[in-house]
Hints:
Mean pLDDT: 85
Radius of gyration: 24 Å
Strand content: 15-25%
Helix content: 40-55%
Shape: globular
Number of strands: 18
Amino acid sequence: MTAIARREELLWSRCAGCASLLYRKRLRRNLDVCPECGEHARLGAPERLRQLVDPGSLRPLSDLLPEADPINFVDVLPYPHRLTAARASTGLAEAVVCATATIGGHPVALAVMDFRFLGGSLGCAVGELITRTAERALDDRIPLVLVTASGGARMQEGALSLMQMATVSQAIAALREAGLLTVSVLTDPTYGGVAASFATNTDLVLAESGARMGFAGPRVIRQVTGRALPEGFQTADFLLRHGQVDMVVQRRSLRGRLVALLAATRAGRAARAGHPPVPRQEPASRRERLADDDAALARPAGPAVAVAPSPTPGAGQTSAVRDAWDTVRMARHPARPTTLDYLDSVFDGFVELHGDRLGGDCPAIVGGVARLAGRHVMVIGHQKGHTTAELVARNFGMASPAGHRKALRLMRLAARLGLPVVTLVDTPGADPGVSAEEQGQAAAIAENILTLTVLPTPVLAVITGEGGSGGALALAVADRVLMLENAVYSVISPEGCAAILWPDRSAAPQAARALRLTAPDLCRLGVVDEVVPEPSGAAHDDPAETAHRLRAALLANLLPLLDVPPAMLVRLRRQRFRRFGTTRGVNRAGVR
Length: 592
């Protein structure tokens, strides 16, 4: 390419919507929105901040974190190499930029995600940075604004990335309890674990025009259902029609809408406190303050601490007996005991309760009251089945939004009645169908996660078979998490991981090993508190003995929780998930 051609390329840009050739300076003046067709181009986090905040008000928060490669993940390229490349190409330390600023004179804390950095994926560092920003908002008593752009949780960090959904959600819950406004702005695209947590469990959810949001991506839904998707599926207008966002906003109007919402919130808080709101002040010199913001954002990216040594098993912990892929197949064995089997063999007097009270009763979720050694508990679990007919009838244990809302209703009922909650997790993931997206799958999962972080009653979760992604986490934010020896728990299925990071799906066994999804691995990482041994062979070889061992483990872990005051339970539960940030909690040797 000649120097003249390169210069021309820098001056012009082609619209992804209508293919018009646009003068780049004109496009930038129009906030990167095509003046011909209205296509909203994706923005990096620095440019998004420049468009939203008052010039000169931006104060970036520290993004210095220890280097993160918590499970030594390698596919065709080692994970640290991918991080280095992302930093070099974006100039950012991670997939989110966090700051305090004012918008229209109103102070806010902001976390703005950048899709250019590994698809805006949610890893430990991203979760830690957003959580710190929420904690700063709580300390300063100011609103939190999140701008999301993400493909979902970062699979290279395994189940630890899945935990970030709970960590950030409980920070959102703390702001809700304090009466502080939380706002998420959905931009294109917002999917997976981000959509099913902090992108949809804020007080207000705004969608930028042209944004797409959902729990499962369109490609996954087409592969699973074999159906063509409706026109405009998962777009901002689709979300508005299905009641999943408060409003759809053109980019040129976004700042003004935020100012209006922040002003109303500030006025309401001031009225409750008996003080009139302070009038906002416009910046004196916009050009000078924009220059200050550019300087603040142009800091070098990179980690603060070198990579830690490779993990070694902790004292008293067991090593994996089977290869990870063999364990995956064992966890999926059709004869493996199901939730209904355990309700019959571990618990007594189970009385099933049905319905979400909003028009649905998902068969993939069963729940109701039962007794455990004479103590009444609320039991909720995924139900698969053993035969093909049972699996189809129960949607293979993949819960719909109605299933998650039924579980939510039973959790809240348990809290009102003072009953402990026991959850049995066995699902490949949440329902990836079109109707599930239309009914708000991401928001349903997000609300379960948020509610469990503050539920004032003991919560004990057991991964009995497959623990798949957000569909599993929706029942697994607990005081104690147990896992049967031959169960698995992962941010993504090995097949899905292989399809994305390897040349083809035949690499699923390699992906299973890289994901660290077995019970011993997760116990070392601190995701799981205790591994429940299975009989020789596996659970399905001796269901009665498996039930006996599970009952003993449930009692040993539940009884101490019954003596803990509710406020302390919630505090300890939050501490359990807060430790999954990069700078605190378990280290790579599995020592807390």
